[in-house]
Design a protein that fits this description.
10 helices, 0% strand, 287 residues, mainly alpha
Length: 287
């Protein structure tokens, strides 16, 4: 069960990163790279399960492995890759903490039972954590386009996971404290719903504000384009007016030249024709 959980966690790492970053190379190169990254992540998690001291550095080693994979095999700016890795870490730790505290606080399971190998409750807790993680990855795929908007925030996008961790930790501590005071599952469910609604409203307001700013930029751009088009149309109108004037004068000019030729005044006809051709040069800009 532990191996399957580690495999699920490592595969979801790569799947989550590939949702938001395109591969740099062909499938023949990208697939072995993804498999290697999964194996390295599984090794890191497996070693952390075997050696207690090593578990202190598991998050850092997973971070290095995932960042190395994204830099070598995926496209995108470095800060966007850091953001994705940090977000997945938040989801990973959050799903685990949520599963543990659900069993401890809601079902009153002893915490020592959840760390005992082979215990059915531990297996149930691990399955719960991985199911929550899978759901979060699926939701990230569904809302991919909206999440990709954050990439335009630049390097500041890295701050978002840190804020999420701070706010999430505070809310969770408040949640646990509130439950211990009331010991009523109904109130804890209502509080959870309120927290989720609050997070959704905050995200929606931030997204709407960003979209409004983008729409304003687009409106300004379209307004400038319209001004340029109006200037172009005005210039075209002047060119058309010149052409029509030239067409109108053409017959009369030819009549004058014909009369001069009949009178055998060739020099005057030649000068008149030269002047007329110079006037026609001003019409060449019309397209």
């Amino acid at each position: 069960m532990e191996i399957l959980a580690n495999l699920c966690e490592s595969v979801l790492w790569i799947v989550f990163l590939k949702i938001f970053c395109r591969p740099k190379y062909s499938r023949k190169i990208d697939f072995p790279g993804a498999v290697s990254a999964v194996l390295l992540l599984m090794a890191s998690i497996g070693l952390s399960d075997q050696f207690a001291l090593f578990s202190q550095y598991t998050v850092l080693i997973d971070f290095v492995n995932a960042f190395g994979y994204t830099m070598l095999f995926l496209e995108g700016m470095w800060y966007w890759k850091l953001f994705l890795i940090a977000v997945y870490n938040v989801a990973l730790l959050g799903s685990s903490v949520l599963a543990v505290n659900t069993f401890v606080n809601l079902f009153h399971v002893d915490a020592t039972v959840l760390v005992a190998e082979g215990n059915p409750l531990r297996i149930a807790m691990i399955v719960t954590a991985k199911v929550v993680l899978v759901i979060l990855v699926i939701l990230s795929r569904i809302f991919r386009d909206k999440i990709m908007v954050l990439q335009r925030a630049g390097v500041w996008v890295i701050v978002f996971p840190l804020i999420t961790i701070s706010v999430g930790t505070t809310l969770f501590q408040t949640l646990v404290h509130f439950y211990r005071q009331t010991s009523d599952i109904v109130w804890i469910v209502w509080l959870l719903l309120m927290v989720c609604a609050l997070c959704f409203m905050s995200f929606q307001l931030a997204y709407d504000a960003y979209r409004g700013k983008q729409q304003k930029k687009m409106s300004d751009f379209l307004r400038k384009q319209m001004i340029i088009q109006q200037q172009t149309y005005k210039q075209q109108y002047e060119n058309i007016r010149k052409v029509r004037k030239t067409q109108h004068d053409m017959k009369h000019r030819l009549v004058v030249i014909e009369q001069q030729l009949l009178e055998k005044d060739y020099e005057r006809a030649q000068n008149y024709t030269r002047d007329f051709l110079m006037e026609l040069d001003g019409v060449k800009e019309f397209k």
